[in-house]
């Protein structure tokens, strides 16, 4: 069974709402035969990444960059997973109060180094997530999970 790994750093109510919608989309009844695994960024391991077939990444934008937790995740898994995860699909969602461009750029740069393939447009939210932003998170989860269906 294909496995989708959701790696997230969820320190705020806005991030929690986005995370819950991503999970809801990935686990909707229309998605069949995909196991969805959720891991906080500080506890996700290289084994989690190697055992997954696709990834969803969630982070706040902190001072124009990804969270330290997501950076730690990438630092931990980068070399152990570099050659074994080439071409795997991923999507991401980012929440910020001022700007998310630096965080999106960092994710793009690191995933390019890993040779992962972005399969959905990132969801970038400024301020509190509204109904449209949360719907976009649901769609992101459903899209990435549906791509893993056999």
Question: How would you portray this structure in words?
Answer:
With 150 residues, the chain is α/β, with parallel strands linked by helices. It is 43% helix and 25% strand. It is built from five helices and seven strands; from the N terminus they run βαβαββαβαββα. It has helices spanning 13-26, 46-51, 68-81, 101-114, 131-146; strands spanning 3-8, 35-40, 54-62, 65-66, 89-96, 117-118, 123-126. Strands 1, 2, 3, 4, 5, 6 and 7 form a seven-stranded mixed sheet that branches. Strand 5, helix 4 and strand 6 form a beta-alpha-beta unit. Helix 1 packs parallel to helix 5. 44% of the residues are buried.
Summarize, please:
By secondary structure, the chain is an alpha/beta fold. It has helices at 13-26, 46-51, 68-81, 101-114, 131-146; strands at residues 3-8, 35-40, 54-62, 65-66, 89-96, 117-118, 123-126.
User: In percent terms, what proportion of residues is strand?
Assistant: 15-25%
How many β-strands, per DSSP? 7
- First CA to last CA: what distance? 8 Å
Q: Report the uncertain regions.
A: none
- The residue fraction in helices comes out at 40-55%
């Amino acid at each position: 069974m294909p496995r989708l790994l959701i790696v997230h750093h969820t320190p705020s109510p806005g991030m929690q709402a986005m995370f819950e919608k991503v999970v809801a989309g990935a686990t909707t009844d229309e998605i069949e035969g995909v196991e969805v695994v959720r891991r906080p960024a500080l506890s996700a391991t290289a084994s989690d990444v190697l055992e997954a077939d696709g990834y969803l990444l969630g982070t706040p934008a902190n001072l124009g960059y990804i969270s330290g937790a997501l950076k730690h995740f990438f630092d931990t898994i980068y070399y152990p997973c570099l050659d074994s995860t080439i071409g795997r699909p991923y999507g991401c969602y980012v929440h910020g109060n001022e700007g998310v461009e630096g965080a999106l750029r960092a994710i793009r740069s690191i995933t390019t180094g890993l040779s992962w393939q972005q399969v959905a447009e990132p969801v970038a939210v400024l301020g509190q997530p509204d109904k449209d932003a949360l719907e976009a998170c649901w769609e992101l989860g459903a899209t990435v999970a549906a791509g893993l269906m056999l």
